[in-house]
Design goal:
By secondary structure, the chain is α+β, with helices and mostly antiparallel strands. It contains six helices and six strands, in the order αααααββββββα. It has helices spanning about 5-10, 10-15, 30-35, 45-55, 60, 125-140; strands at about 65, 75, 80-85, 90-95, 105-110, 115-120. The protein is globular. The termini are far apart.
Length: about 140
């Protein structure tokens, strides 16, 4: 399988966690396949490569917001949900009709209102911007 996005996700480890990326930072293909075996959907390539690159790295998976483990992924309101803020006020997802797009647009739901709004960026753009925002905010404090 071609890796289009994996290097960008692997780069999060040395950039923000001052450690070299190691293979064990990600989930193996066998682990990811096992986590997803009961799911009736395919992951977009970018989300798949995110889990393969850093899905076993707690620092990445729980940096300010919480990325769902692959076995916790679910479809709700026509979206594949993958991320939640620590207060459970917002949930992020990808439209189900876009799961075949390699790097689809991310949407955010205000949980109390049930309203979805586009983040106007792809999964890869959103993840990279999220980490930049989280760690820039930490540096300012």
């Amino acid at each position: 399988m071609t890796e289009l996005f994996a290097d960008k996700f692997r780069a999060l480890v040395p950039q923000y966690f001052e450690d070299e990326w190691a293979e064990e930072d990600g989930l193996s293909e066998a682990e990811l396949t096992e986590y997803l075996e009961d799911k009736d959907f395919e992951l977009p390539l970018a989300l798949y490569e995110f889990y393969r690159a850093v899905g076993a790295t707690e620092d990445v998976m729980e940096a300010f917001h919480f990325f769902w483990d692959p076995d916790e992924l679910e479809i709700e309101d026509g979206f594949l949900l993958f991320l939640e803020d620590e207060d459970e006020e917002y949930t992020w997802g990808i439209r189900v009709d876009q799961l075949d797009v390699p790097d689809p647009i991310v949407w955010r739901r205000h949980n109390a209102r049930g309203e979805w709004q586009s983040e106007e960026g792809t999964f890869t753009e959103y993840v990279l911007d999220l980490f930049e925002w989280v760690f820039e905010e930490d540096e300012e404090n």
